[in-house]
Amino acid sequence: MKNYLASWFLLFGCVLLLSTPLQAQSASSSDLIVLTSHQDVQQSDEINSASIAEPAHEASHGHAPGWLVIPFVTLLLMIATGPLFYEHFWHHNYPKIAVGLAAVVVFYYLFVLHNVHNPVHALAEYVQFIALLASLFIASGGILIDVDKKSTPLANVILLIVGALISNLIGTTGASMLLIRPFIRLNKDNIQPYHIIFFIFMVSNVGGSLTPIGDPPLFLGFLKGVPFFWTLEHNWPAWILALTILSILFYLVDRKMGKSAAVQESDDEITHSNKITLTGTRNFLWLLVIIISVFLDPNVLEWVPAIHYDGQKFSFIRETIMFAVAYLSFRYADKKALKGNEFNFEPIREVAFIFIGIFGTMMPALELVGTFAQSEEGAAMITYNTLYWGTGFLSGFLDNAPTYLNFLAAAMASQGADINVIQQVKDFAMNNYLDSSFELMAISIASVFFGAMTYIGNGPNFMVKSIAEQSGIRMPSFFGYILRFSIPILLPILFITWLVFFAFAG
Question: Which domain holds residue 454?
Fold first, then answer.
């Protein structure tokens, strides 16, 4: 694993070294990579965090041809078919495949398009992504939650709802890693794939739509200027509707497909204390450090040092803290908790490599979508209905965080606003443009809810799947997940959400 990750960062080290000569025709002092302090940043008040769509710099960066999406589509197809049709080959070679396909796209951007801007952004977003996921995964792995309670449909529903609430405090990744193992242990006598799928639906995705901490796209919106409590104020009705329907459906399914009468009768003879035991509680302090560090962003707090590159400010203090917490929380974790959780690094390893490929290869897809959405023809098509379905379906197959940014940038551009100006983002959120708050609501809900449509829609999905498989649960394939669960269960709920909140609005 270290060799593959080293090759990835070596590749992007070359990106940074090559950046000056490749952009020589437009080089200026702002094109160089420098560490900035509060005094250095004062000269550029309108600089904001990394974004896929950057109108101010587009003219100096080459654009990807349509065929360059082939590596991305190839990766998606291999993720879908590998575990099903050539499992041995895929399991042993997916790191090489993911890094290799990403390298093809990155080198094309560098040496053919002479575009360093997009790869650097992809690197920054990947580091932010993996730092948060890895630190939450490792810190929560040192907390053992033992629920000595009889497994019933009602107990399962309560745990899922609690997980949905917690996901707004420590993020969908933190809540998923904290509760997936207790959820599996609670149902150890009858754990089935549907348990894990509903967990992904409710805890790993839909649950985290009330705060910017809850899900990565909402956090990026907060960094761009969306007020912190805006998501709670606007998203709670859809949150309640979706979770209520999912809870009822899970309860009915669990009653029908749960324990057989014989197993249930045997279980009834077991005495349960109904107590919840926690081991490794000091790791909650590490989780708190991670959550606090989330807000150490140089685009929000000007005193935070940053990497200043190509008119952008990139965070590195936050990520350094998160990687340090990942190491320290494991180094000093309670060994009993680690053993009880059967903790190992395979789930985060799989996510790290798969998303190297996704972040590296999805640049052309996001660029083409963003370019069209901001064109005259695309802008004419922008309504809260098209924003809901467009953001949604792409969030299911692309990472939902950059998809959120792309559609927010497009929606704002269609009304003459710029996503890189914090005050204009605030105005957009506060409905100071035509139906702008409603459009942002459509983008926000869709990016979070639709993230559950596939294993790759949101980072925690893959980790939950991997942990479940390590526990002996035979999870459905990529297509099986979509055909057996997403389409018949989740999609109707997404349609009802659209029908209630958007279809007849305005």
Answer: 2-267+280-501
Determine the pLDDT at residue 64: 84
Strand partners, 205: none
What pTM does this model have? Answer: 0.74
pLDDT of residue 52: 38
What integer pLDDT is reported at residue 21 of this predicted model? 40
In a domain, residue 506? The reply is: no
Contacts 24+ apart (CB under 8 A), 327-336: 328/286, 329/135, 329/138, 329/139, 329/142, 329/283, 329/286, 330/138, 330/141, 330/142, 332/282, 333/141, 333/142, 333/280, 333/283, 334/142, 334/144, 334/279, 334/280, 334/282, 334/283, 336/144, 336/279, 336/280
Residue 63 lies in a domain: yes
**Residue 345 burial (CB < 10 Å; 0-12/13-18/19+)?**
middle
Would 275 be classed as within a structural domain?
no
The answer to whether residues 267 and 204 touch, using CB atoms and an 8 Å cutoff, is no
- The Cβ of residue 153 has, within 10 Å, a number of other Cβ atoms equal to 17
Query: What pLDDT was estimated at residue 312?
Result: 76
Ordered DSSP codes for 95-162: HHHHHHHHHHHHHHHHHTS---HHHHHHHHHHHHHHHHHHHHHHHHHT-EEEEES---HHHHHHHHHH
Amino acid letter, residue 468? A
Provide the pLDDT for residue 112: 92
Half-sphere exposure of residue 262: CA atoms within 13 angstroms, side-chain side: 0
In a domain, 133, yes or no: yes
Q: Which segments in the chain show pLDDT lower than 50?
A: 1-59, 260-262, 265
Which amino acid would we find at residue 332? Y
